[in-house]
Amino acid sequence: MICTQELRKPEAQPETGAEIRLRWYREVLLAAAFYLIYSFVRNQFGSASVQPSAAFSNALRVIRVESNLHLFVEAQIQQAFLGWSFLLRLCNIFYGTFHFIVTAGVMVYLYRRAPARYHKWRTVLAFTTGVALIGFSLFPLMPPRLLGEFSTFGGRSLGYSFVDTLKQVGGLWSFESHGMAPISNQYAAMPSLHVAWALWCGLAIGPLLTRKVTRVLFICYPFVTLFAVVVTANHYWLDGVGGVVVLAAGYGLATWIDGLRTHRRSVVAVS
Q1: CB neighbourhood size of 142 (10 A)
Q2: What is each CA distance from 169 to 18, 40, 87, 166, in whole angstroms?
Q3: What are the residues whose beta carbons fall under 8 Å from the beta carbon of 29, sequence distance 6 or more?
Q4: How far apart are CA 68 and CA 27, in angstroms?
Q5: Which of 15, 79, 93, 192 could form a disulfide with 243 if both were Cys (CB 3.0 to 4.6 A apart)?
Q6: What distance in Å separates the CA atoms of residue 150 and residue 155, rounded to the nearest whole number?
Q7: What letter would DSSP give residue 1?
């Protein structure tokens, strides 16, 4: 008789630490409720709730900072790719879809493979998004693609030559569509949640990836996202830095809350 051994990949083991009791329907409802609240707060009254002059003045502040660093390069980057209509359309689609699809996919993967890690990084994402809302409300910012409408603001010719690629080249949607125009807040640019969420994806799932290809993809994902938001004139690169800052704040807050929860649990166990 020939003896054989069954070869199989070891199943992913749950992470050690606090007991995690998750219910998929509860997580879906929590995510949906959080996103609805986030969308309402972010887009309340749309861009009409912000004075364009205030958003434009903040844009000048961002440009001034980048110029002082000799890194106000967004216009040059976009100009270099304006002849690449296919790439710009692809970036518009990337901007409007990957932000949600990849983030949701990472959450599902973590939920199934590493519940404890999912629990922590879901909280990080929630805090990151919440901190970003504060940024949107305190610092409304006109994105580069809208600067042309204010090129002579205050009687000065500013000479900005950004192109609204979503309007000129197209994608799967438009800020001017009947569904988006009344609710979208086009001045919610600082920080860039596209960059924050993209970096969150890589950090959350990175340690679980074993294939080199997928690791490289998730390492590149935040940088590709930054390129997409800049070349489409939806963000300044400094908005991406803001995204990194709010992610760091979200991680710090989530870690602090987790520490309080662990301490409380240890106190209860001792008593």
Answers
A1: 25
A2: 50, 29, 10, 6
A3: none
A4: 45
A5: 192
A6: 10
A7: -
Residue type, 240: G
Look at residues 112, 103, 125 and name the one whose alpha carbon lies nearest to residue 14. Answer: 112
**Cβ–Cβ under 8 Å, residues 175 and 181:** yes
Take residue 112 and report the two structure tokens written for it: 């199934």
Please state the φ and ψ torsions of residue 72, each to the nearest 5 degrees: -85, 85
Token pair in block for residue 21: 């009791």
Say if residues 118 and 22 touch (Cβ distance below 8 Å).
yes
Q: How many residues does the chain have?
A: 271
Q: Are 116 and 15 in contact (CB under 8 A)?
A: yes
pLDDT in tens, the chain (271 residues): 334 333 334 344 444 444 556 776 777 777 777 777 767 666 664 555 678 888 899 999 999 999 999 999 999 999 999 999 999 999 999 998 999 999 999 999 999 899 989 989 999 999 999 999 999 888 999 999 988 766 555 555 566 789 999 888 876 655 555 445 444 678 989 999 999 999 999 999 999 999 999 999 999 999 999 999 999 999 999 999 999 999 999 999 999 988 877 767 776 666 6
Tokens of 127: 């805090």
Q: How far is CA 12 from the centre of its chain?
A: 28
Angle at CA of residue 46, ends 222 and 49, nearest 5° = 115
